[in-house]
Every structure is written in structure tokens, then in C-alpha cells.
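Renewal narrative, Specific Aim 1. Our central claim is that a sequence can be written position by position from structural information alone. The example that follows is taken directly from our test logs and has not been curated for this report. It begins with the C-alpha cells describing the chain, in the order in which they were read.
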């Protein structure tokens, strides 16, 4: 399940302080396409251990999710929470 911003906010409200929220979604399709390239390149090394269905399933996963991220239908976030707020100002590392 990919939780919505609303679901994450409601689940964390009253429990944590949200220090930072970074959206990797606009770039994540590139990661998935690179994983697909590596998977294809290395398939000959492992293909005797897995079925053709497995191969097609992973290729489908990488490419369908790459398309969904590129179209901005799904997002990938990195969220930093603290228990009671940080001392001073939280500085994100990007």
C-alpha cells in the first residue's frame, strides 16, 4: 500500500514532529530504469535459478512503476520525524 499524505499526517499527528519531508518521486523513475538495465544485463548469470515468468514479472514491475513515477501518479518520500522536536533547527542533508 502506498499511503497518502493525509494518512501519514493523521498517523503521525500527536506522536511526532515532522522535521522534513522530501519528495524523490520526480526522479525515482530513473532509478527504476537503471535497476531494469542491471537486471537485464545480469539475467544470464541467474536465469537458470528463476523462471521466465519471474523475469517478465520483474521487468513489468520496474517499467510500470517507472512510468507511474514519471507520470507523477505515485510518489516516494523521505520523511524525518522526531519525538519532541529537534534542539535548534533541523538541517536536511540533500
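The sequence written for that structure reads:
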Amino acid at each position: 500500500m502506498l499511503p497518502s499524505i493525509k494518512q501519514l499526517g493523521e498517523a503521525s499527528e500527536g506522536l511526532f514532529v515532522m522535521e522534513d519531508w522530501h519528495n524523490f518521486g520526480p526522479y525515482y523513475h530513473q532509478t527504476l530504469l537503471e535497476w531494469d538495465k542491471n537486471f537485464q544485463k545480469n539475467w544470464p548469470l541467474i536465469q537458470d535459478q528463476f523462471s521466465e515468468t519471474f523475469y517478465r514479472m520483474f521487468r513489468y514491475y520496474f517499467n510500470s512503476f517507472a512510468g507511474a513515477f514519471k507520470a507523477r501518479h505515485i510518489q516516494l518520500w523521505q520523511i524525518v520525524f522526531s519525538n519532541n522536536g529537534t534542539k535548534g533547527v533541523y538541517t536536511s542533508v540533500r
